[in-house]
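Observation: inputs received (chain + iron/sulfur cluster).
Thought: call the complex predictor directly.
Action: predict_structure
Action Input:
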Amino acid sequence: MRKLLRTIFLVDLIQGLWVTFRNQHPKNIYTEQYPAQRPRIAERFRGAPRLNINPETGETLCIACDLCALACPENLIVVSSERNKQTRRKELTTFTYDTSRCMFCGLCEDACPVDALELTQDFELASYTREGAIWDRQMLEEGPKPTWYRY
Ligand code: SF4
Ligand code: SF4
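Observation:
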C-alpha cells in the first residue's frame, strides 16, 4: 500500500528533483571553466615529458645511458648517441619520445640516474596529427607551448 501511494504521488520523482534543485546555487557549481580557468593539478600528477638541460651551460643533462628506454614497458623511447673521440664520452644525438603510446607510469623517470628525464605537470599534449605526438629532443627540451586563452 505504501509503495502504491509513493508511486501515485510521485514521491521518488519529487525527491530526485529536490536533490537537483538543492544544488543549483552557484557555490555548488563544479564544472571547471577550462580553458578560461586553468585547473589545479595534483602535486604528484605525471604529464608531459621534459629532457632537462643545465640552465647555466644550456647543455643536456642526459648522458645517453639508454636506461629510460630499457625501463619503458612500451618501448617508446629511442636514444641515439655517438662517442666523442676527444673526451671518450658518449654524447646524445637524438632522443624521441612517442607521447601517444605513453601511459605515464614514470618508470623511465625513475630509471634515469641523472634526473635528466622528468614527467612534468603540463597536461596539454593534444596534437592534430599522429606525428605531432612523437616528440624529438628539441620539443622535449623546450616543452609544449599551449595557447593560454584570456576572456
Ligand atoms: S612514463 Fe612509462 S610508458 Fe611513458 S615513456 Fe616512461 S616508462 Fe614508458
Ligand atoms: S636514463 Fe636519463 S640519462 Fe639515461 S638516456 Fe634516459 S634521459 Fe638520458
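Thought: report the result.
Final Answer: The beta strands are 49-51, 77-83, 90-98, 117-119, 134-135. Residues 62-68, 79, 111-112, 114, 116-117 surround iron/sulfur cluster (ligand 2) (CB under 6 Å).
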